[in-house]
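Chain A, query sequence.
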Amino acid sequence: MSDSLRGVIYMLLATFVFALMTVFVKLLPNIPVLEIIFFRAVFSIVACLYSLLKARVPVFGNNKPILIIRGLAGVSALSMNYYLIQVVPLAAASTLTYLSPIFTTILGVFFVKEKVSPLQFLFFALSFSGILVIQGFDNRISLFHLMVGLTTSMVMGLAYNCVRKLSSTEHPLVIMFYFPLLCLPVTGLWMVFNWTMPFGREWIYLAMVGLTSQVAQYYLTCAYQIAEIGTVSIVNYTSIIYTITLGFIIFGERFNSMTYLGMALVCAGVIINVLYKARVTQQKKMETVL
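Chain A, predicted structure.
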């Protein structure tokens, strides 16, 4: 089996398990978002510390200011994402945060001096039009939900650019470690004054949020390690199929035809942009070789 095929399989597994994670978050409507994130961070910090100590990597890294920004951005984005999962249909919540690659590219102009061609702005506009279609034709999604989704994508774009900036100075495990490192004290302090006691199955759902997050992150890392980013990143958008299916089976969620069109426009704009960037990168490599 080729590395590309294995990478695609790993990404399919990662996106499916991430979709399962959103199901468990939605099954916890009575548990505050920050409390759910606290339990997820407990799983993350144990796994990260174990891996860091096993690999004998210095825990706190070198570029601490950017690591802290990356960690805080991760906590903020995840909080808004979990909020959307709890209050709007699963597939819609996922789609509203699909613009993160676009914001990653735009913010990359300032962070890593990335060049953006005029053609890419047409792709961005296509995705934005899809978001507007979703918001305009689904009365379960308000203007406030739209703004939360856009803000989530923007903060995720900031986090991804921090990761890109840190890639030359930090071990990947250190970058991952700063999320639970900053998440636990922030969410823990909030829980001191706002603790909601889980009951019965809620304890299982909380544990499954943490477990599925770690499993999905593992397969995601494997996918990016053995295959080209352009190949596996597109596969990531199969999650819309998973969330639509799981939302229908478990929560009875349905959409009208215009909402499906909006989702398709969002995915199309992002995927075309990914393919375009991969093509430009490949052309540059060929020019360098020649």
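Residues 62 and 169 are 7 Å apart (CA to CA). The two ends are 31 Å apart (CA to CA).
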